[in-house]
Amino acid sequence: MHFKRSLTTVALGLVALMSFASVSEAHVGLLRPCARGSPRAGCPAPTGGQQPDYDLNSPIGTHDSQTLPICKNIIPQPPTTLQAGQDIQTTYSVGAPHGGGHCQWALSYDGGKTWVVLKTMIHTCLQGVNGGDPYSVAVPLPANAPNGKAVFMWLWNNAIGNRELYSNCADVVIQGGANGGKISGPAPLFANYGTSSVLIPEFGGAGQPDSASAFDSRPTVSVGP
Length: 225
Prior knowledge:
CATH class: Mainly Beta
Number of domains: 1
Structural class: mainly beta
């Protein structure tokens, strides 16, 4: 009897593990720096009552609806230390890259109310990547980035499939930069995120317009502690 119960427990554990793998690898999510709520190995356990996000790679909304807030998870987590003037080495869990698309990386010092974009990739982000492949992008952090706590955000508009927006955020502490001051750059474009947002149609086929001009109209903003 005990042996049968043990086999049942093992089987249920394997099913749960397989379910976690299939769910967590769907679409694409930020792997490093550790995203809020990340259940990944090497990331701190979620705090503040936040549960592990086993669906970290799923979108936060489509052009029809805002399913989840920007950042996807809103409770701050133990931060990753970043050095001003050095690239942020970002890596991703890739399940379904949907033909690539547009990516933006941004920084906020006021808890996500105001963002400044550090890097933008139009059309080529995740392009040509297969599900399960490693993927990384170096994002420059300005040498004059103010020291202190901040939030680092990744945004992705996919090229093929439902008109979705993906977002993950990592809590960070910046060192080696400026004591005060601000950095400036474009504000993020939150496209395909509710009916009032900019619509970026599919652009995976040859000759299909990729709506790159929508990013040209982003206003310039300044952020700092």
